[in-house]
Prior knowledge:
Elements: E1 2-6, H1 11-22, E2 26-31, H2 39-48, E3 53-56, H3 62-71, E4 76-79, H4 86-91, H5 93-113, E5 118-124, H6 147-165, E6 170-176, E7 178-180, H7 199-207, E8 214-217, E9 229-230, E10 232-234, H8 235-250, E11 255-260, E12 266-267, H9 268-279, E13 285-288, E14 297-298, H10 303-309, H11 317-330
Parallel strand pairs: 1-2, 1-4, 2-3, 4-5, 5-6, 6-11, 7-10, 8-13, 9-14
Antiparallel strand pairs: 9-12
Helix pairs in contact: 1-2, 1-8, 3-5, 5-6, 7-9, 7-11, 9-11
This protein binds nicotinamide-adenine-dinucleotide (NAD) and uridine-5'-diphosphate (UDP).
Amino acid sequence: MKILVTGGAGYIGSHTCVELLNDNYDVVVLDNLSNSSEESLVRVKNITGKSLEFCKADLLSKKQIAAVFSENKIDAVIHFAGLKAVGESVSIPLRYFQNNITGTLNLLAVMNDFNVKNIVFSSSATVYGDPASLPIKEDFPLSVTNPYGRTKLMIEEIMKDLYHSDKNWNIALLRYFNPVGAHKTGEIGEDPSGIPNNLVPYISKVAVGCLPRLSVFGNDYDTPDGTGVRDFIHVVDLALGHIKTLPKLFSNPGLVIYNLGTGFGYSVLEMIKEFEEVSRRKIPYKIFGRRPGDVASCWADPSKAKKELGWEAKKTLTDMCRDTWNWQKKNPDGYQ
Ligand code: NAD
Ligand code: UDP
């Protein structure tokens, strides 16, 4: 079985490539390296002792995508490629719509031309907006508050319409909660360009001494300690969720939707404390006002994925912090 992984050089993509190779899939990566480095794929090969094919190509070029399909007999696509920074999406929405929506439309059109109709799409818990209750189930109402989230919701809708038009498609929409952590070898991990927007990469840059202090966005939420609560999920658990989704996809399920989360929420302060313990470093922080658009709490009901895919997250908060720290210590400048 040959799997095309778009965005495979990125954070979640590279971890998924490792698990695909470990599970004996053949892997072709399509990535334009706009937010990643080919070095991640060299390390994927080192970790697994297996090879994969890399095609430097852009989803904005149908011609480049078609060339990949002409040269490879693809059985299914895992579609990670996209821009993902919420704040940036507010400043440059057209770039986000162009890259994420047009890129996906091009990919789906080429897949249709080559009669490859199995796809797993990286959606996000952001499509639930501010949930009315917790934990979040897949049938909760959907709403979004920023252009990044809107691209995820629009792509979900596009894929639903596509499935309704042609029942030969098999589509899995995977809604990720908060991916963190790194491979246990410390060879691959999250390598944000510039100052990180997300909590855990920010904390680890403070711990390693690259940034002086963390800003905690709000301590007046209706949560046990007043700071935001999220469902942090280890990236390797998340990658394994994709591996469990593939056999489901090949069983012709039509369009399916799963939450990939742990079902537990931890607060910003709990995350800082755990990171301090595993790194044995102090994380200086200061409380600031709430970040616009943030919800107080968000965690998944992952029981549908457990029942239908036989998947559940296994790794603990300590694993997440320890593996992030291991990656950060070994690679203070990321893949540079
Ligand atoms: P990432 O930026 O590390 O990886 C995305 C990859 O896509 C990068 O390697 C980038 O170079 C590539 N890419 C972007 N546009 C492209 C294009 N037009 N053509 C070819 N390649 C292109 O991000 P990630 O954290 O690994 O996220 C992967 C997917 O999961 C994204 O779609 C993201 O929106 C989604 N997601 C991420 C999170 C998260 O917190 N990391 C949460 C929910 C959903
Ligand atoms: N957060 C914070 N400081 C930061 C980054 C994030 O206090 O520098 C908080 C944020 O307000 C939220 C939580 O950490 O409550 C998770 O934020 P992140 O950006 O990692 O993920 P999100 O759930 O917003 O996608």
